[in-house]
Amino acid sequence: MDSYEQNRSPTPPIDMFSEEFSEETQDSLNPPVIDLYGVLNVSKEATEEQIKEAYKRLCRTFHPDKHVDPENKRAAETKFQVIQRAYEVLTDPTKRTIYDMFGEEGLNTSWEVGTRLKTPQELREEFEKQAKLKKEHEVENLVKSKGDIQLSIDATQLFDPYDSVSYRRKNISSPSSIFENIEVTQLFLKHSFETQIKPQTQAFVVGQTIIRNGVGGGNIVGSIRHTFSPHFWAEVGSSVVQPRITTAKANYSFGSDGFFTVSAQSQTIISPPNLSFTAGRRLGENTSGYLSYKTGAWALGPWGQNDSYSRRERSSAAIGINSSMEKSGYGLEIQTSLTNSYISANYNRKLFDIYQIRAVTTLSTSSGLTAILLGERKVAENTKLAIAIEFGIPGGITFRCRLSRLGQRITIPIHVSSEYNFKIALWGTLLPVITIVAVEQTILGPRRKKKAAEKLAILRERHAEFISTRKREAEEAIRLLQPSVERKVEAEMTKDNGLIILEAWYGNFAHIKEASTENQYGDVFDVKIPIQALVFESQLIIPGGYSKSNIIGFYDPCMGERKQLKIKYHFQRKLHEVIVEDKVPLACPLRSHIVPNNR
Prior knowledge:
By secondary structure, the protein is an alpha+beta fold. Helix content is 29%, strand content 35%.
């Protein structure tokens, strides 16, 4: 068997961030809590047998009875207490369920969940119920209610290219005259909420109204959705007032790789409902594609032949592809129809890690060429502000401002030109981009880094004793591991497929340019011995989901900053090298780790 193929847990792609400081610096000044899974180096899905095996391996080194030297015995007792607690919690179904959901705080809380004869699944359900009841009141109004207000403004009189300069000066020389030259053309209001009727049944109510040039109307739509299984749900709905519209929709998912959706909409019983079919499938790790077909108005024999009201609905077919990555994404859609065929492309990307930039271009047989450039930023804890410019031929130019907070959204489109104007389009896109980049580079970016550095300094000063203690404990663990690691290295060297760790460093490598200078910086820590100690049967497995500083023999040398693990190792007489993020799982050996030409 191929020695590489024995490893079934490949390492995910390295996740590279542009920020030097981690989220824990931004969110908290508290020292990290020890993760019990990390202590035993097991995954959060580990079985009881896997936990016991990991515990036995650690006991061979850290059980106090294994040491005679008083100093080593004292150090082993300290480590063994942590190992023993991790084992006791993770092998007790009740304690493990509480720990998985609420951490150490949950273990120190008194829970009234019935008799001790309940299964782990029943206990988990009861804990989840209590947690849900505790938070239900806080989040009820945040997630179950959504509102949308859109106020459309016509400001073309302010930018009318046919107006003379003298007329413009005369009419917009004061704030009051500016308001005289703008007009509110449309007001759109929409509000929706949902409620849980039964565990698998939800009810939705949507009310909306629109007023355009003094004339308006509205409707209320209610629907009920029932989830029959994890893969299938269906819903039916109807409007309350005229025009009476009845809808039905069903969705079936094929695991995480595909789905199929069918929907129907009818305004009258004298013709068949308009049908829509959509099928989607995952095409790659971050890419999916879909096909869609709408029947429009159609007839089944005599049924629907005399219905002229819905004949404006025409059939259409569309195909699209979407890709979504951590910091960017794109989409492409092509639709063909008797009334409106188009091709649309969009691209979005994170800028400076706080701005979301989105560009959309559409070429349509009905509305011509349209392009939209949108920028969005989080301005408060639950608030986002977005500004966009939309220009089209022949649609003109429109600026949009959108404020979103906790499901509530206000949008103000301002129509500034009824024709395409190159100067307005240029300055409407170029000036905001230049302003954002300049302000970000000269003011906001340096200010954020300064605040993060100040917070980091406070964090390390406040917990200097904690960091020093953790470093001493890590060095003591390395001293205890040294003899067994030397024997393990000798055993690995006798194998044809032995895995030998040459170097291993843990910490922040942002300021380190050469591999030979790692030990000159306090932001990294030599973990060669702890990593070699984790090698079992010529394989190294480190589960993800928790910080590697929890592993015995590790400590956090750069609290509050981004951390990585860098390893160089020999396998099958070839040099390998890998760098992984702190909470990303690691599996060695892998062919992807081979250093080209053994540099």
